[in-house]
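quick one, 480 residues, struct below
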Amino acid sequence: MAESTLSARSLENLLGDWRAGAGSAYHALAERIRLLVLDGRIPVDTRLPAERDLAVRLGLSRTTVTAAYRHLREQGLVLSVRGSGSVARLPGAPTMLPAPPAADYIDFSKAAPPALPWLPDLARQALDELPEHLGDAGFDPIGTPALRAVIADRYTARGLPTMPEQIMVTIGAQHAIALLSRALIGRGDRAVIEAPTYPHAYEALRAAGARLVPVGVAPHDEPEWSGEAETEALTRAIGHSNPVAAYLMPDFQNPTGRSMSAQTRERVLDAAARQGTAIIADETTGELDIDRPESLLPMAAYGPAIMVGSVGKTVWGGVRVGWIRADRPLIRRLLAVRSPGDLGTPIIEQLLVTRALPHMDDILELRREQLRSGRDRLEQLLAQFLPEWRVPRVDGGIVTWIGLGAPVSSQLALAARAQGLIVAAGPRFGIDGAFERFLRLPICYPAETTDAAVQALARAWRSLSGAAPAPEQSLIESVV
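---
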């Protein structure tokens, strides 16, 4: 059964300029819908518009839309049942899971560094300690006292005095965002988000019933934007829309890489306090500084804010441990919200993270060197193979937000798959098809992976024009 229905108008917005490029109309339409399903903009189990409705909306013959849907059915991306319509699917996997990429694909869509080299040692130490915790049922909805204490100590060392009672341990940062969304937001409530932003965060807010209020983020190192303009936009959105919550990434925002200044943090938190808006500050990448000139405190040090953190970007994404730092009354409220969905964070992983966090300075030093090398390597390769692109020099975080100069991000993502590369198109980080002029690329991969990925991107970029352009002709001109 379909979980939701996509109207012809909504699908038209998601499709964007799908007609660009050579080839038949039905094939171009099918390929764009395919990308929307593969990168999650059309969720699995969504009912697609009826063929007749979509044909009218797009100004096509019904035969063209019918052929596009048939092509998608042949690829396993659509299931059509007479009388029930056509529903989005993913081939070769359960309907709620993404299809695993083939072994010969480079997956450049994930922004996550490799595991710590000493992670196996930490895991063995955690297992040695496990027998001490086997005397009870093992369900832990708030976190072990030892882990909550070391998380609190880390905040305190960074300039934000914190008690263990202000910490709830979660199953990663995404779990924390989902819990907060359910605790703070009722159906129809407004929630401010940055645009672009981390897509799974706005999905969690929407799932809780929020009406999203997007505010443009000042991209890192973009001269035509200013931090002051972003500050004004955020405070205005909070003041005018009366949101119950705002989800922000103040440090090394994903995907733009920008960091809020201390003045912006203070002004936004002041506006939120006056309006009664809960600020959710996601610090998943907050400590991944490479060479940022300004030293900044955690956002809650500048005013009331709920902090979200995890070890997914520092220790390893496979260690599913995150946390929420909040006032004690909200922690109690979160406990009530959590129990219907899960019964606690795994003990073994908590033991591992308890041993890792006291060494966070060493971990961050390793990550700093890896990210600096990855950033510099990616910049060098893009300058060599794709000099037309605008590549901001980020000073921290794990990604960079590339300016393509033309609204072709979705086309490029499709072309890259043909070259054995998976990348996330820019609109994955926006709403309703925004950000076709951008592409997010990670800076945290090993050099050999980055080398292969950029060369595949260069081939895909040139394929958009059908042939390599003449030296005096830019690729942007050739694909527009």
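Residues 41 and 428 are 7 Å apart (CA to CA).
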